[in-house]
Amino acid sequence: MFSGIRETAARQALVLPRLAKLASRPPQCLLIEGGSAQERLDMARYWACVLNCENGHDPCGSCQSCLQIADNAFNDFLLIDREEDEKSGKKKQDISIESIRELLPVWGQPPHGRGTRVTVVVEAQHLNGNSANALLKTLEEPRPGNVFVLTAPQRERLLETLVSRSWVITLSWPTQLSNSPEVSGWVDSMLSFWRSGQGWFEKSSAKGALDKELAFMIVNGCQRELINALRDPQSSRPADAMAGLFDAKGLRRLDLVLSKAQESLNYNVNPALVLDWVCTAAMPRRR
Ligand SMILES: [Zn+2]
User: Fold this and answer.
1) CA–CA distances in Å: residue 269 to residues 158, 182, 238, 258
2) For 111-150, what is each residue's pLDDT tens digit?
3) CATH classification of 2-171, choosing from 3.40.50.800, 3.30.40.10, 3.40.50.300, 3.40.50.880?
4) In angstroms, what is the span from residue 10 Cα to ligand 1's centroid?
C-alpha cells in the first residue's frame, strides 16, 4: 500500500529535499539509518519511487511504478533479506552469500523499465563476513542502471568499507530523544551493574517488575544512549558514563548484545532473563 510510504515520508519530511536533490545523480549506494526498521524500509521504497515514478521525482503514489513498488511487485525493485528457517519459520541469523550471488546476473543486465533498478539490503547489519564481502565486490563494479540501498539502525553496525561507499541518510528517531524516567532508572541500574557488579539483579528479579513491553523500551533506551556514547558522549549523563565504562570494542559488543536481546524479546523469551543476560554478556572487561 502506498499510504504507508506516504505516512512515513510525511513523518520524515526533513530528508525528502535531500532525496529529491540526489535523484538527478543517484549515488550508487544509499545507507538509510535511524528511525525504526519499518520506517527505513518505507524510505527505501520511497527512494525507489523517486527514481521510477512515471510522473517525475516527486512520487505520485498512483502510477503503476509507485503502486507496484509499494506492493513488492515491481520488476526493478529487489529486496535482499534474511531467509526464513523452514522448520521454525523464524528469520535466520544472517543474510546468506547465496542471496547476493543469485542476483549477480540480474545486476549485469539493464533495468526492465525506463527508471533505475533499486536493490535494498534489508537491515544490512545481518550481513555476515562472506555476504558483506560479496556485496562490497558488487559495489566496486560499475552497475549501470542499478543503485543499492542499505538499511541499518545506525552506521556503526556495518563494515566501515560499506559505509564509506554509501551516501548516508539519517532518519529521526521515532520517539522522544530522551528516555522516560522509568526507563532511565533501569538504564542507570545497568550502568551501575557494569561499574560495580551490583544493583541489577535485585531490581530485575522483583516479581512482575518487567514485562515484554518495558523490556523493549529499556533495550531501546540503552541503544539510544549507546548511539549518543558513540557520537557525542557529552550529550547525556548515561552516554557519558557508558563511554567511560566501555572501550570501542566493548561498545560494539554491547550493540550486538542489545540487538540479540531485541530478537529474543520478539521470540517471547522471558524479559527478565533477556535483560539479565544483557547485563552479564556486555559486562566491560577490565582495562
Ligand atoms: Zn508515481
Assistant:
1) 27, 22, 27, 14
2) 999 999 999 999 999 999 999 999 999 999 889 999 999 9
3) 3.40.50.300
4) 16
Higher pLDDT, 32 or 214: 32
CA 106 to ligand 1 center in whole angstroms: 24
% of the chain at pLDDT higher than 90: 69
Q: How many angstroms is it from 112 CA to the middle of ligand 1? A: 16
State in Å: Cα 97 to ligand 1 middle.
Answer: 33
- Letter string b/e over residues 220-249, b meaning 16 or more CB atoms within 10 A of that residue's CB: bbbbbbbbbbbeebeebebbbbbbebbeee
Distance from residue 64's CA to the centre of ligand 1 (Å): 7
User: pTM, whole model, 2 decimals?
Assistant: 0.67
Question: What pLDDT sits at residue 174?
Answer: 55
**Rounded mean pLDDT of 177-198?**
90
For residue 124, the CA-to-ligand 1 centroid distance in Å is 27
